[in-house]
Amino acid sequence: MMSQPAAILGPQYCVPQVVDIAIVRKVMSLADGSFVVTDANDNILFKVKGRFFSIHDRRVLVDAAGNPLVTLTEKIMSAHDRWQAFRGESTDPKDLIFTVKRSSMIQLKTKLHVFLSTNTTNEHVCDFRIEGSWLERSCVVYAGESNNVVAQMHKKHSVQSVLLGKDKFMVTVYPNVDYAFIAAIIVILDGINKDDSGD
């Protein structure tokens, strides 16, 4: 486990215990905010607003009060499905927090690399990596190239969620890991895989 808290979007999202968050996606919704992130008691932590069907995929993660935390944009014409995350509603390079890209062009399983804006290795050494199967909602987030798990996804099927047309899965975020950052990564993961599945 990480020894020091890794505050990426904010220290208030780093807590000393495990945090279970639920990602609820309305399957048939084309409207704004078709993505909600709740805690284990169904309290809304974050919502995702965005233009999902425009040429330029852009999503904004907002807190429960509607304050924008991070803007996630897909970089058009990039070879490795590159996404960038900016502070608040900015898309200014000086407000870049992190970049996510596929580790290779052709992938059977999900494998993404996350580079924080403070990373000076010119994208040779990633700060976090995501591996697993998005289809099965079983991805794991690791710290850098290590085997230290910082977050893990689990699929949660229920008759109710199927009837309501919702896709719900749980993410366990380990202690002292920024759970808002993990939520932002999941939103990007969804964006990258939406392109693959054509859904």
From TrEMBL:
Gene3D superfamilies cross-referenced by the UniProt entry: LURP1-related (2.40.160.200)
Q: Which family does it belong to?
A: Belongs to the LOR family.
The name under which this protein is listed is Uncharacterized protein
Which sequence ranges are marked TM in the entry?
A: none
What organism is this sequence from? Eucalyptus globulus
What PANTHER family does the entry give? PROTEIN LURP-ONE-RELATED 1-RELATED (PTHR31087:SF160), PTHR31087
Q: Please name the Pfam families in this protein's record.
A: LOR
Q: Which domain of life is it from?
A: Eukaryota
